[in-house]
Specification:
The complex is a heterotrimer of chains A (499), B (504) and C (99). Chain A folds into 3 domains: 306 residues, no CATH class; 110 residues, no CATH class; 59 residues, Arc Repressor Mutant, subunit A, CATH 1.10.10.410. In chain A, 39% of the residues lie in helices and 18% in strands. In chain A, a hairpin with a 5-residue loop joins strand 6 and strand 7. Chain A is built from 16 helices and 15 strands. Chain B has a single domain, classed as Alpha-Beta Complex (Amidase signature (AS) enzymes), CATH 3.90.1300.10. By secondary structure, chain C is mainly alpha-helical. Helix content of chain C is 39%, strand content 9%. Chain C has a two-stranded antiparallel sheet. The longest helix of chain C is centred in the first third of the chain and has 18 residues. The chains are: A alpha+beta (499), B alpha/beta (504), C mainly alpha (99). Chains in contact: A-B, A-C, B-C. At the A-B interface, loops of A face helix 10 and helix 11 of B.
């Protein structure tokens, strides 16, 4: 059943959008939140579990001190108040990927609360998002659904559970209802999550890769007739796995909810599921018992009372945050405001920085990432950092151009090869034989051939008409399959002709 | 050779150290005893003969090489089946864990293994430690060695019966509301619940996280002290574990055995006697007090008015925590899995069918009660309020300990009742723990020592309670009571128990 | 026969994922009512001025270093599982699972 939708612009003209975002970030600690099982990507199933993360009878949690420090860092970076004292709580619900059938989380005593973060939009507008709370909790295991005709056991439907991820430290960040974004709500939502992602990396608390599930977002949306009206009923949309999805999902929900309200209907408070391929949300399972989680303080853990001096030390040592870092970078790289904004909006700041560190000039780095690579990313429908090329490789590539071993045109061909998985730039050059001909010998031979083919050109050039030089260069380029430095060919042509 | 199984652990340890007896001999003697009497007694759910004898053999070899060994090395021990033991079946007395073999050891088991005590096996208990009679075990009753038609107490009836029947000189129990102390009282043995946090809970299948503690189950106070010293100590795996150094309990016990209680202030808790307490139990209690008084202790009366609310608070806190702790038993990862025969076998339905079949009545009762107490709208009135009563009880204890060094009471209101007598009346069953429960709520340590035989010829217990972290006081006073009483009786109380019929 | 207590027990049994037979439901309803009434007396003394105690002995800031410990042996663990496949726990179909 497809939803009725109201045109977005029409919807926002008549309704005021209020949204909220819940972000979960996986902390990049070495071990899990409540036990010493290691966490790293790609481990064999169920090999990174101890009795605690597997929820075996008799097991007890023990809090990872580094995870707490990371949580405090996040809270401070979000301008939150750090709790004087906080506790863990049990959130009780049954699900096969939750080995204890309760999640150890924080309920009414989060480690950080009441903060804000400034989000910069593409056109430079700054929007302040208020933060309700940030709290610590543990992740669940992973279910792989095996079903029906595709299952090994023909017809059977079952799931396979891997508990490697169970117990990984998470921080959940919840915004207060975000009002005042109006028709820009989708944009603000997206920019907010991007800002958070950049912040997590800058703080060193997570690799924050959305495509790996390091950062997950759920989006709440509600509409109301005007900004003076009370808040409307909201829906929660899950499975928004990229920045683009966030923006699209908010947009979609606004259009969908407007249609329901226009029709005199009521919004059902429910969890919806975003489908990136089709660009719409579907209704999730409506929970029958309204999920009574029976929260109570975790009796196996004791309160955390952060020492104020320790918190201040963390605050003093907070790394430079993305906004400040962007300003400094812009100055160092000498980009104009508009250029920097484009770079930021494309999510290319870190990539350019790494490329500069790999030896390229800031101008060259920007040229690559905002030019050829941006175009390729758009074609493939992915984010820049998902491309199959690293800043180090771009740095090497530019180095080859700077050395004169590649022309820009050749360099683009080499880049194609790198993206196609043929290896590093040097390897692609060798494999495809793309290097600029640096030896004059073959060039002179090609020049002589071209001149012999067009005898009247020599006379013209000697006579001071330099127009035809281009034709000779073109012929030489063709003969060398583009692997000649056009400037050098020109020099040699003139030498030859005037010799 | 005199019967090795009649020796106290301390005496047996002495003989092992002297080389008079080998650990293999001692272990085999106990295994033989188990084979001879455990049919009727049914203290054990699993006997680990091979492993025990292997440990014993290793100890004997080490000793012959002159290696340094723990004082208790080679002394056999039984472990309540609520404690996780790697490679040995662990059921917590429940069918939902039938056949489960843990892949790890509880910390206290690691300590026992490091000290090289042969583990004889796992003992019977009320399912998931919920009960006062061991009748709620999923594997059948344990019978009191004093009278096989009677309960051995609970939830740790198996460990207490094993020790009372000379099947083991030492056993491990756990105590959440009296599950070590009450069985000790009704079997004429010694049981100690240490200060909360002083013995690691890592590897104890949890009942009520804020109340559970593991402790020694023995025939003498000195044996309890020796075992307590072995299992106590900080554990980084248990976040509620105290960093205090382990006390010199054996030394304090010896002090008590010498009768040194002069000037000790003994507080008699007014609320822990009177209606519901058998006259014979009260009489033995009073006699023990008299002996202490004669030895120079000062007897004072104290009042702890909020103890009257302790049972109510306990039966809210325990089920609430237990309902959450027992949620993990769902047939997905280990243990029983039951698939419903009607309708789709979804995960949810399999969980519900497994728990419906795998849990016994008492467990279901308490899970339902606990889930109710935590559910939306009821938290403040039930669980929240119960936690406040806990504060009031701690304050009562604090006030009482201003006036007394230890508090005392009868351990349980009655002697061992007949099997089946209280099964239909859960509330009546809960009253068995009325004197022991306040101790767990406050986290203070408590001990039960035999006070003698009641008018019905069955054992009763004398409970000693100390302030938190002052477990040593239990050993001094408890040992003194034991010494005075045994002097009067001429022999330990267990010698008055009927000899069990030995099967050939 | 449906009574408020019987309905309540049924609701709670659902939350606790325990299948109860009709006679069990009846019995538990009766027992629960009695137990709840008797334990409700805690409200008598649990006044607002009394703080709650969750932990018998006050401890705080107990942390562990971010250092690995030996994980479980997978074969040993899966040998105890009711069902396993490809190194994972095999569990029945989960309703409402996101594909």
């Amino acid at each position: 059943m497809s939803d009725f939708l109201v045109d977005y612009d029409d919807a926002v003209a008549r309704y005021d959008t209020v949204f909220g975002i819940e972000v979960h970030v996986e902390l990049g600690t070495r071990t899990k939140m409540f036990d010493g099982a290691e966490q790293f990507f790609g481990a064999d199933p169920n090999t990174q579990v101890t009795p605690v993360s597997l929820g075996l009878p008799g097991a007890l949690p023990a809090v990872n001190g580094t995870a707490v420090e990371y949580a405090v860092r996040i809270g401070l970076a979000l301008n939150c108040t750090i709790a004087e004292s906080c506790r863990f709580a049990r959130k009780n619900y049954f699900y096969p990927d939750v080995p204890k059938n309760f999640q150890t989380s924080q309920y009414d005593e989060p480690i950080a609360h009441d903060g804000w973060v400034d989000v910069e939009l593409e056109d430079g507008t700054v929007f302040r998002v208020e933060i309700e709370r940030a709290h610590m909790e543990e992740d669940a295991g992973k279910n792989t659904h095996v079903g029906g005709a595709t299952g090994r056991i023909h017809g059977a439907i079952y799931s396979l559970v891997d508990y490697n991820r169970a117990g990984v430290p998470l921080v959940e960040i919840v915004t207060k209802p975000v009002t005042g974004a109006g028709e820009r709500a989708p944009e603000v939502a997206r920019a907010y999550v991007q800002t958070l992602r950049d912040m997590f990396r800058a703080l060193g608390v997570s690799e924050a890769r959305m495509e790996r599930g390091n950062v997950r977002a759920d989006v709440n949306v509600s509409l109301r007739p005007s900004s003076d009206s009370p808040l409307g009923t909201r829906t929660e949309t899950k499975n928004v796995n990229s920045f683009r999805s966030i923006e699209r999902a908010v947009r979609y929900e606004v259009s969908r909810q407007a249609a329901v309200l226009d029709d005199g209907g009521a919004i059902v408070q429910e969890t919806r599921h975003w489908h990136e391929d089709t660009g719409h949300t579907t209704s999730g399972r409506i929970k029958s018992d309204a999920e009574d989680y029976r929260y109570f303080p975790e009796p196996d853990l004791v309160p955390i009372v952060p020492d104020p001096a320790w918190v201040e030390e963390i605050r003093a040592n907070l790394p430079e945050l993305p906004a400040a870092r962007r300003k400094r970078r812009q100055a160092e790289w000498g980009y104009a405001d508009a250029e920097m904004r484009d770079v930021v909006n494309a999510g290319a700041v870190d990539l350019i920085e790494a490329t500069v560190q790999a030896g390229a000039s800031p101008a060259a780095a920007r040229k690559w990432w905002m030019g050829e690579l941006a175009r390729t990313a758009k074609e493939q429908g992915v984010d820049l950092e998902s491309l199959n090329v690293t800043p180090q490789q771009i740095g090497s590539l530019q180095h080859l151009v700077d050395e004169g071993r590649l022309t820009d045109k050749l360099a683009r061909q080499v880049l194609e090869g790198v993206l196609a998985g043929e290896g590093d730039p040097e390897a692609v050059v060798a494999k495809r034989g793309l290097e600029v001909v640096s030896d004059d010998g073959p060039l002179l031979a090609a020049i002589d051939e071209a001149l012999a083919a067009q005898p009247d050109v020599v006379a013209k050039i000697q006579g001071g008409n330099l127009g035809p030089v281009g034709a000779i260069i073109g012929a030489v380029m063709k003969a060398t399959r583009g692997q000649a430095d056009a400037a050098r060919v020109r020099e040699l042509v003139l030498e030859r002709v005037n010799a | 050779m005199s019967d090795l199984t009649r020796l106290s652990a301390a005496d047996l340890a002495q003989k092992l150290t002297n080389g008079e007896v080998s650990s293999v001999e001692a272990t085999q003697a106990h295994l033989d005893r188990i084979a001879a009497v455990d049919g009727p007694v049914h203290a054990f759910l699993h006997v680990s003969s091979d492993e025990a004898l292997a440990t014993a053999k290793g100890v004997d070899e080490a000793r012959s090489k002159g290696e340094e060994l723990h004082p208790l090395a080679g002394v056999p021990i039984a472990v309540k089946d609520v404690v996780v033991t790697r490679g040995l079946p662990t059921t917590a007395g429940s069918r939902i864990l039938e056949g489960w073999i843990p892949p790890y050891d509880a910390t206290l088991v690691t300590k026992i293994k490091a000290a090289r005590l042969p583990i004889l096996g796992k003992t019977n208990m009320d399912e998931f430690a919920m009960g006062s009679s061991t009748e709620h075990s999923g594997y059948g009753n344990t019978h009191n060695p004093w009278d096989l038609d009677r309960i051995p107490g609970g939830s740790g009836g198996g460990s207490a019966a094993a020790v009372a029947a000379y099947e083991a000189p030492l056993a491990i129990g756990t105590d959440t509301g009296g599950s070590i102390r009450q069985p000790a009282a009704v079997t004429g043995t010694v049981g100690v619940k240490p200060t909360y946090g002083s013995v690691s809970r890592y590897g104890l299948i949890a009942l009520a996280s804020s109340l559970d503690q593991a402790g020694p189950v023995t025939r003498t106070v000195l044996d309890a002290a020796l075992l307590h010293e072995l299992i106590a100590g900080h554990d980084p795996h248990d976040s509620t574990s105290l960093t205090d150094p382990v006390g010199a309990f054996a030394d304090e016990a010896r002090r008590g055995l010498a009768g040194d209680v002069k000037g000790v202030r003994i507080g008699v808790v007014k609320e822990l006697s009177g209606e519901g307490y058998q006259p014979g139990v009260l009489a033995r209690f009073e006699e023990s007090l008299d002996l202490l008084r004669e030895a120079g202790a000062e007897i004072v009366e104290v009042s702890c008015p909020h103890f009257d609310y302790a049972l109510a608070a306990y039966y809210l806190i325990l089920p609430a925590e237990a309902s959450s702790n027992l949620a993990k038993f769902d047939g997905m990862r280990y243990g029983l899995r039951v698939e419903p025969t009607d309708g789709p076998a979804t995960a949810e339905r399999v969980m519900a069918a497994t728990r419906g079949q795998g849990f016994g009545d008492e467990v279901k009762r308490r899970i339902i009660l606990g889930t109710y107490a935590l559910s939306a709208g009821y938290y403040d009135a039930y669980y929240g309020s119960a936690q406040k009563v806990r504060t009031l009880i701690q304050r009562d204890f604090a006030a009482a300990f201003e006036k007394a060094d230890v508090l005392v009471s009868p351990t349980a209101p009655t002697t061992a009742f007949k099997l089946g007598e209280k099964l239909d009346d859960p509330l009546a069953m809960y009253l068995n723990d009325v004197a022991t429960i306040p101790v767990n709520l406050a986290g203070v340590p408590g001990m039960s020592v035999p006070s003698g035989l009641s008018d019905d010829g069955l054992p009763a217990g004398f409970q000693v309670i100390a302030p938190a972290r002052e477990d040593a006081r239990l050993y001094r006073v408890g040992a003194a009571v034991e010494a005075f009483l045994e002097a009067r009786w001429g022999a330990p109380i267990l010698t008055k128990a009927p000899e069990l019929e030995v099967s050939k | 026969m449906s009574t408020p207590w019987r309905d309540e027990v049924a609701r709670v049994a659902g939350l606790a994922r325990i299948d109860l037979k009709p006679d069990e439901l009846d019995r538990l309803a009766g027992e629960l009512e009695v137990i709840v009434q008797s334990v409700a007396r805690v409200s008598e003394v649990a006044t607002p001025d009394v703080p709650a105690t969750s932990h018998p002995l006050p401890l705080s800031n107990v942390f562990r270093a971010d250092v690995p410990e030996t994980p479980l042996v997978r074969d040993e663990v899966l040998a105890q599982a009711p069902a396993a496949e490809d190194g994972k726990f095999l569990v029945p179909q989960i309703l409402g699972e996101d594909a």
